[in-house]
Specification:
Layout (H helix, E strand, L loop, with lengths): L7 H18 L4 H7 L1 H19 L3 H6 L5 H13 L6 H9 L4 H16 L2
Helix pairs in contact: 1-3, 1-7, 2-3, 3-5
């Protein structure tokens, strides 16, 4: 099945699950664990790549309809993580994870979007 034939909910669930996984990876140790444990860093970065890849597979129509979600930034960040991994600043990644305007906000936006699409 090609990505274009999948429901947007398929990709939105992946985004939601990856955000939840990041939260679980950081439960024990938070910022200190993230900045000093390679395994935690790699797990978080992998989930961020999944989020960006899933976002890139959403239709342009859906992204335009829900343009308040920064889809382009999400996909661009995925591209940096996947193709320029050697230049990733973990302090910047931490700010994205913890900043209320970034990953926590995306979590609530995606949950609301899932609820809306499920109730159509």
């Amino acid at each position: 099945m090609s990505s274009s034939s999948k429901s947007p909910l398929f990709f939105l669930y992946h985004i939601k699950e990856s955000i939840e996984a990041i939260s679980s990876y950081l439960q024990d140790g938070g910022k200190d664990a993230f900045l000093h444990r390679r395994m935690v860093q790699m797990a978080v970065l992998h989930e961020l790549v999944i989020i960006g890849e899933a976002a890139s597979n959403l239709s342009d129509d859906l992204k335009a309809t829900y343009s308040h979600i920064p889809w382009r930034d999400i996909v661009d960040f995925r591209n940096v993580l996947a193709h320029h991994y050697w230049g990733v600043d973990m302090e910047v990644v931490w700010k994205i994870i913890e900043d209320g305007d970034k990953l926590p906000k995306l979590r609530s936006q995606v949950r609301a979007l899932i609820d809306e699409l499920e109730n159509k």
